[in-house]
Design a protein that fits this description.
This protein is an alpha/beta fold. The chain has 2 domains: 183 residues, Rossmann fold; 98 residues. It contains 12 helices and 7 strands. A 5-stranded parallel β-sheet has the order 2-3-4-1-5, sandwiched between helices. The termini are far apart. Bound molecules: adenosine-5'-triphosphate and magnesium ion. The site of magnesium ion has 3 residues, from helix 3. Magnesium ion binds next to helix 3.
């Protein structure tokens, strides 16, 4: 084999390892609750249907900060239950359909987006209530029992109280529909709680799950284990510099204590090590500081993986390294 084909083969091998990293899903404690609740709702629905009972659907509300891992958790939830319910929206009969709340989230826009997600050719000249009537017809025709809205906090953004009430009423009417009740799976930022809590009846029908922030001391051990797990997935060894408590604390701070962001930074660091040093690389702190510098445009003194007093650096501020007051305000 000549050098070029050897190199190409090595590249392909590295790419495979990086793909495997991206696919790794780390279960969170919150995921169990989501899982148990969803399974319970599916079983309840099956039992009610077997009894021929009219009923009110129940659903889920998943909240967390940006980057906590909400979208990923819902995707994993649906994947996991795809043996119990049909989830392939290209098929005529699809028990779960999910979509992202469009912007601006007027009732008309959201209704139209829902119709489109249901595969209905929407003509665009109907008013909000008529669109939602159409949505209800389509939900029944497609056999859709669960409807997912991601970024659901946007349902209340820039809305008057009256509009917000109409959002809540529409969501409730989907769940209380005596012809074809649908369980909502709402996911979004913590503001979503305010929309749902605005109405006690809606709140009672949704099981709440919250993805919390990582804890800078309690989560040190689990974070070190997760780093090792990703390195093992990339078939790499880990240097001492990424096994210490101090490193885990820096990493959590860099991820703004959000689990999803933490996973994302580790994936980037492991991928960077593999691409820059090849299959025999050992994962070390410098891979994290390189990735951080690239992502945040930070000089060393603003790099959470390098600066001594990293606690003063706000991980949410990007490309802010040219002022000398980069201190948290
Ligand atoms: N349990 C997990 N295991 C592995 N990676 C995860 C996990 N949860 C999230 N991630 C990764 O974290 C990143 C952010 O996750 P995600 O997009 O789900 O967050 P989010 O809460 O929906 O954020 P946003 O509010 O910005 O939409 C993604 O790159 C995703 O792959
Ligand atoms: Mg998301």
């Amino acid at each position: 084999m000549n050098k070029l084909s050897k190199d190409l083969r090595a590249d392909g091998e590295i790419r495979k390892r990086v793909q495997a990293l991206r696919k790794l899903y780390i279960p969170r404690p919150e995921f169990n609750k989501l899982d148990v609740c969803f399974q319970k709702h599916i079983e309840q629905r099956r039992a009610d249907e077997a009894d021929g009972e009219a009923f009110r659907a129940r659903g889920l509300m998943l909240v967390g900060q940006s980057g906590s891992g909400k979208t990923t958790a819902i995707r994993e939830l649906i994947r996991k239950h795809s043996t119990l319910i049909t989830t392939d929206s290209s098929l005529e009969f699809c028990e779960y359909i999910g979509l992202q709340v469009p912007s601006p989230a007027t009732m008309k826009f959201v209704g139209a987006a829902t119709l489109r997600a249901l595969g209905y050719p929407y003509s665009g000249n109907k008013q909000g209530p008529a669109i939602w009537d159409q949505v209800k017809v389509q939900l029944k025709l497609r056999g859709t029992k669960f409807l997912g809205f991601d970024e659901a906090q946007d349902l209340a953004r820039y809305q008057t109280d009256k509009e917000r009430q109409s959002v809540v009423n529409t969501l409730k009417s989907l769940m209380e529909n005596s012809v074809w009740p649908v369980g909502l799976v709402l996911s979004g930022m913590p503001d979503l709680k305010h929309i749902v809590n605005q109405d006690a009846q809606l709140a009672r029908r949704l099981d709440p799950v919250e993805i919390g922030r990582l804890h800078s001391i309690r989560d040190v051990g689990p974070v070190i284990k997760i780093v090792k797990k990703y390195a093992a997935r990339g078939r790499m060894d880990t240097d001492e510099s990424v096994q210490s408590e101090a490193f885990a604390m820096r990493l959590m701070h860099a991820a703004d204590y959000q689990f999803g962001l933490l996973a994302e930074i580790i994936v980037l660091a492991v991928s960077h090590a593999l691409f820059s040093e090849g299959g025999d690389a050992t994962l070390e702190m410098s891979h994290f500081s390189d990735v951080y510098a690239e992502r945040n445009g930070a000089d060393d003194w603003m790099n959470i993986f390098i600066a001594d007093d990293y606690g003063r650096i706000d991980p949410k501020r990007l490309l802010d390294n040219d002022s000398d007051d980069g201190v948290n305000e």
